[in-house]
């Protein structure tokens, strides 16, 4: 059953979900928080993507890591988690953690201090980050929940990333597209948290077979709150 409940705006304008018996909060900043476990999940930070592109001759303003860390600090201060799971592609490539400037390394380390921090391996960063604390894992289980980077067909209680879901709706002749949490009561795919990541429409064939369409809800990220959108309202890219 697709269970949706509104959470008080005093908890950041988020929307509550229940998956595998665990109650979570979809935060408008793009993180997922499980209050009973004090567990915060973020996915696809893609830190140092700008410097990675620069190494390949594509020069962008080098502020993506700073923007992503600022957002990460906000969501950690809001929820005060004891456990943080970074759900893969935390860095844009295998050398990203080595290129991390000292000031950002210090900022990230300060956010990690006093918390159980898990780096889940992603396809962009399969090796553990260098010079940072935390534990590196292939996937992680808490109770009936399983956290992994790439979603798997047939899994239940799965929290995954990788696909950078987004949703598009049309209202009063105006098209609106936003990053989103994709959820059908059995599994949830996280939006990308990084500042240079973009998104892929949840109706794209890359999502085929992962969700029960009739139960699919896209939790679109707004500026101050999360908006649950039923599958019948979704439009292709």
User: What number of structural domains do the residues give?
Assistant: 1
Strand element count: 17
CATH class: Alpha Beta
What can be said about the biggest beta sheet? 9 strands, mixed
Backbone structural class: alpha/beta
Q: In the CATH scheme, what's the topology name?
A: Purple Acid Phosphatase, chain A, domain 2
- Averaged pLDDT: 91
Helical run tally = 4
Task: Explain the layout of strands and helices.
Blueprint: E1 4-6, E2 15-19, E3 22-26, E4 32-34, E5 39-42, H1 49-55, H2 64-79, E6 83-86, H3 96-99, H4 102-112, E7 116-120, E8 135-137, E9 140-142, E10 145-147, E11 158-160, E12 165-171, E13 174-183, E14 187-189, E15 200-201, E16 217-221, E17 226-230
Parallel strand pairs: 5-6, 6-7, 7-8, 10-11, 11-14, 12-15
Antiparallel strand pairs: 1-2, 2-3, 3-4, 4-5, 9-10, 12-13, 13-14, 13-16, 16-17
Helix pairs in contact: 2-4
């Amino acid at each position: 059953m697709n269970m949706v409940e509104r959470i008080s705006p005093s908890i950041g304008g988020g929307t509550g979900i229940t998956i595998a018996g665990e109650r979570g909060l979809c935060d408008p900043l793009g993180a997922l928080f499980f209050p009973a476990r004090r567990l915060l999940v973020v996915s696809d930070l893609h830190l140092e993507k700008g410097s990675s592109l620069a190494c390949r001759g594509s020069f962008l303003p080098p502020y993506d890591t700073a923007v992503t860390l600022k957002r990460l600090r906000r969501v950690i201060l809001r929820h005060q988690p004891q456990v943080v799971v970074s759900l893969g592609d935390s860095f844009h490539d295998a050398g990203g953690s080595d290129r991390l400037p000292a000031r950002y390394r210090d900022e990230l380390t300060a956010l990690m201090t006093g918390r159980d921090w898990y780096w889940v391996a992603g396809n962009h960063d399969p090796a553990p980050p260098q010079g940072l604390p935390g534990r590196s894992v292939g996937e992680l289980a808490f109770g009936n929940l399983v956290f992994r980077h790439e979603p798997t067909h047939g899994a239940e209680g799965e929290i995954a990333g990788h696909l950078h879901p987004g949703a598009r709706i049309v209202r009063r002749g105006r098209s609106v597209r936003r990053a989103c949490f994709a959820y059908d009561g059995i599994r949830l795919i996280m939006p990308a948290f990084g500042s240079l990541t973009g998104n892929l429409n949840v109706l794209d064939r890359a999502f085929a077979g992962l969700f029960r369409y009739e139960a699919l809800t896209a939790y679109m990220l707004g500026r101050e709150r999360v908006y649950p959108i039923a599958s019948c309202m979704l439009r292709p890219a």
